[in-house]
Design a protein that fits this description.
9-stranded mixed sheet; D-Maltodextrin-Binding Protein, domain 2; 347 residues; 15 helices; 41% helix
């Protein structure tokens, strides 16, 4: 990231914001912060929003759990009161998403890493004690594992050491950052255990992505929507099913669920914080700098987040895994200065 002079740019942006708002038919002002995005970040952002309203004496920010991908589309659609001020994300913004933002005039963005999370695989407390690897998950869930149609019906079809029970996985939709992270951190890793697939990444990137990340649609994987609590309910009631969601939801439901080890490593606070668990990932919020002067409460929300994400903060009690101290320090400084992100680092 780099420091970018923002004072003049933001002054102009505030004027543009008002003009844009009046043209949108939504009025030329808004007295609350509007946030969209990740269902994983949603419970943390909600707690911060409630605290911000109390400490800053403002209306509580309004938060919609749309999923990271859908949230990015809303956030990047333009500048003005008709568009969100902040997007929660359970993965980093993609280069293609930033380019869409820029095309619509959303060029100045503040990126803040707010903590860590893990893509947890879990089963009911009375489940069969599954032990999986990324290769097992890939062979079970991919539409065309290693380029061939998926015919696996049971986990034993995938790996003879696993139980002969039907493959039944409840997980996030394609609009979710958790789904993106599942594809990147687990499915692709499993796919690349085959040397031919690993080589395909260099020769045909698009084909590699399709083979490695497209999920089957024959019922073995159930899209449960942007509601991780629904996944918890489904698998707690079905001991033969597996759920995929953010670690915080496992942490909150240890009376009903237990984590499924991945490569022999349980999803725990410690294994996520040290990134030894394969599904560990950072969580972010992105702020539209053009809205900072026009919409009261945006910076206050970011500053409240920075007060809450530490080892003694209230977000840890809600299941957020605390970032390393140096990451906390860097991002607290960003929250204070509203330093703009450097898009040249995006992929």
């Amino acid at each position: 990231m780099r420091f970018v002079p923002t004072f003049a740019a933001l002054a102009v942006s505030a004027i543009a914001l008002t003009a844009c708002g009046s043209n949108s038919g939504a009025g030329d002002s808004r007295d609350f912060v509007r946030i969209v995005g990740s269902s994983t970040v949603y419970p943390f952002a909600s707690a911060v929003a409630e605290a911000t309203a109390k400490t800053a004496g403002i209306k509580a920010p309004v938060i919609e759990s749309t999923g990271t991908g859908a949230g990015m589309k809303l956030f990047c659609a333009g500048v003005g009161v008709a568009h969100p001020d902040i997007v929660n994300a359970s993965r980093r913004i993609k280069k293609s998403e930033y380019e869409d933002c820029a095309k619509n005039g959303v060029k100045d963005i503040v990126e803040i890493q707010v903590g860590l999370d893990g893509i947890a695989f879990a089963e009911a407390s009375g489940g069969p004690n599954m032990k999986l690897t990324p290769a097992d998950v890939y062979k079970a869930l991919a539409a065309t594992p290693f380029g061939k149609p998926n015919t696996a019906k049971t986990w034993a079809d995938v790996n003879p050491t696993l139980p002969a029970i039907p493959i039944s996985v409840y997980g996030p939709p394609s609009t979710s950052g958790t789904r993106d992270a599942l594809a990147e951190l687990i499915l692709t890793k499993g796919c690349d255990t085959d040397p031919a697939m690993k080589a395909l990444k260099d020769s045909d990137k698009d084909k590699h992505k399709a083979i490695c990340t497209k999920i089957r649609e024959d019922g073995a994987y159930v899209d449960a929507g942007e509601n991780d609590n629904l996944i918890v309910q489904k698998i707690s009631a079905n001991p033969k099913a597996i759920g995929v969601f953010g670690y915080s939801f496992l942490e909150e439901n240890t009376d009903k669920l237990k984590g499924v080890p991945m490569d022999g490593i349980q999803p725990t606070y410690q294994t996520i914080s040290d990134f030894s668990y394969p599904g560990a990932r950072p969580l972010y919020i992105y702020i539209k700098a053009a809205h900072l002067k026009a919409i009261k409460g945006i910076k206050e929300f970011a500053l409240e987040f920075s007060k809450a994400w530490g080892a003694d903060g209230y977000l840890k009690k809600k299941g957020m895994v605390v970032s390393p101290a140096d990451v906390q320090k860097t991002n607290a400084e960003i929250a204070s200065s509203m330093k703009l992100m450097d898009p040249s680092t995006l992929k």
